[in-house]
Task: inverse folding
């Protein structure tokens, strides 16, 4: 990406699709730094922070949320057409998110069972990642993403370079911080060996196991970790649920989880 014309600040939009708004908070949570950021870029659409202009042409669009309705499908194409660089942020936008569990469970049947007037609920049978519908230039995984991830990516883009993708696993962050491994030391079913780094090993850092909110790492051997968990005595169905959670639609987690869900071990 090259910087926009001299004399004007890069224009940025933050779009929301099917999501909880948590990833937008990674930007809002910058506090005073967000004011500093607004001296470098012009936020033309960021409804949670104030400016509203969803149809504006922008240099960088951050997209939060999965594609869960017919209106989402139409709108993401419009956003793509008006954005020079599109960054998908968070688990919903990168893998379909928690709501992609409905892909496995007959979403329409659930709607009929839960809502007295299902005709009012207008959603697709599936929740899918933004990249399934339009070209995505960069993805930031996490549920939610962190302020650090967003600012590092934005800084790279403002410098005219492609942001660097996080490829390590959470285990590497534990090692770098000299944390005691909760899997080795306490037998917890930690998902760190297959999970993309970037959070600073937040959960092992407070003594609990990672539940993979940052999605699959590069070359994640999910099947090997699943077998390791089973060998430690965790029932297969419970192991399956570890993988079919926030990022259930990501291929390695889906493959490791789906065959185990009906297990009665
Ligand atoms: S605590 Fe989890 S993330 Fe950290 S080294 Fe152990 S298995 Fe890996
Ligand atoms: S340790 Fe795992 S579950 Fe916890 S924040 Fe990091 S990626 Fe998410």
Result:
């Amino acid at each position: 990406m090259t910087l926009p014309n001299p004399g004007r600040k890069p224009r940025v939009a933050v779009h929301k699709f099917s999501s909880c708004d948590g990833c937008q908070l990674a930007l809002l949570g910058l506090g005073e730094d967000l004011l500093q950021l607004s001296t470098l870029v012009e936020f033309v659409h960021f409804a949670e922070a104030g400016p509203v202009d969803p149809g504006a042409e922008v240099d960088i669009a951050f997209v939060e949320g999965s594609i869960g309705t017919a209106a989402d499908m139409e709108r993401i194409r419009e956003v793509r057409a008006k954005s020079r660089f599109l960054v998908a942020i968070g688990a919903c936008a990168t893998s379909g998110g928690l709501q992609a569990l409905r892909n496995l469970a007959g979403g329409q049947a659930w709607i009929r069972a839960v809502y007295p007037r299902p005709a009012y609920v207008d959603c697709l049978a599936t929740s899918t990642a933004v990249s399934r519908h339009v070209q995505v230039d960069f993805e930031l995984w996490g549920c939610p993403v962190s302020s650090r991830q967003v600012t590092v990516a934005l800084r790279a883009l403002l410098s005219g370079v492609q942001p660097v993708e996080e490829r390590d696993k959470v285990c590497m962050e534990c090692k770098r911080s000299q944390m005691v491994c909760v899997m080795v030391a306490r037998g917890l079913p930690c998902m760190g060996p297959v999970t993309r780094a970037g959070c600073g090993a937040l959960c092992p850092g407070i003594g609990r196991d990672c539940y993979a909110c940052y999605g699959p790492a590069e070359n994640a051997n999910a099947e090997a970790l699943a077998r390791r968990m089973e060998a430690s005595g965790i029932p297969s169905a419970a192991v399956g649920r570890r993988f079919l959670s926030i990022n259930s639609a990501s291929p390695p987690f889906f493959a490791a989880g789906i065959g185990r869900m009906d297990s009665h071990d």
